[in-house]
Amino acid sequence: MLQPGDVVALSGELGSGKTTFVRAAVRARHGEDQTTSPTFTFWHRYAGDPPIDHLDLYRVDDPAELHELGLEEALDGHSIAFIEWWTHAPSLVPQRRYEVTIAGAGDQPRIIEVRRPT
Ligand SMILES: Nc1ncnc2c1ncn2[C@@H]1O[C@H](COP(=O)(O)OP(=O)(O)OP(=O)(O)O)[C@@H](O)[C@H]1O
Ligand SMILES: [Mg+2]
């Protein structure tokens, strides 16, 4: 369903499976053999049509530093963007987004909720 410009904001505790979910989504969209070009440690871009950006904002303390790094490019409408730990920079994430919330971690089963705030 995802279109260029769509943003998927992921929540869930450490080790809940956010990165695993994103990688599976990239495989589903682009195929198995995906190469990532890490722009920064917290930003991976998967080439393809459309490109997919995977951001992990866990280590971000100050949203201003993201603007300095040109992160808006990941959200300029040309790619699909997945964002882990998006609450570390809520101003970056558009209101129009999908929210994926993963409950459970470790050996527990997962419950994954996908919603679209209106
Ligand atoms: N749906 C799932 N069911 C069972 N195990 C899973 C599931 N998704 C991920 N895992 C396992 O949980 C562990 C953590 O996964 P992952 O790195 O994707 O979590 P994360 O939410 O991205 O963590 P972090 O907050 O540190 O970035 C991995 O060992 C992974 O194999
Ligand atoms: Mg992760």
Question: Can you describe this structure?
Answer:
The chain has 118 residues and is of the alpha/beta class. It is 16% helix and 30% strand. It contains 2 helices and 7 strands, in the order E-H-E-E-E-H-E-E-E. The chain has helices at residues 18-30, 63-68; strands at 7-11, 36-40, 43-46, 52-56, 80-84, 98-103, 111-115. It has a 7-stranded mixed β-sheet with strand order 2-3-4-5-1-6-7, with helices on one face. The longest helix is centred in the N-terminal third of the chain and has 13 residues, at 18-30. The two termini are 17 Å apart. Bound molecules: adenosine-5'-triphosphate and magnesium ion (MG). Adenosine-5'-triphosphate is lined by residues 12, 14-20, 84, 110. Residues 18-19, 56, 84 line the site of magnesium ion (MG).
Can you describe this structure in just a few lines?
This protein has a domain at 1-13 and 29-60 and 67-77. 16% of the residues lie in helices and 30% in strands. The protein has helices spanning 18-30, 63-68; strands at residues 7-11, 36-40, 43-46, 52-56, 80-84, 98-103, 111-115.
Layout of SSEs?
Blueprint: E1 7-11, H1 18-30, E2 36-40, E3 43-46, E4 52-56, H2 63-68, E5 80-84, E6 98-103, E7 111-115
Parallel strand pairs: 1-5, 1-6, 4-5
Antiparallel strand pairs: 2-3, 3-4, 6-7
Adenosine-5'-triphosphate is lined by residues 12, 14-20, 84, 110.
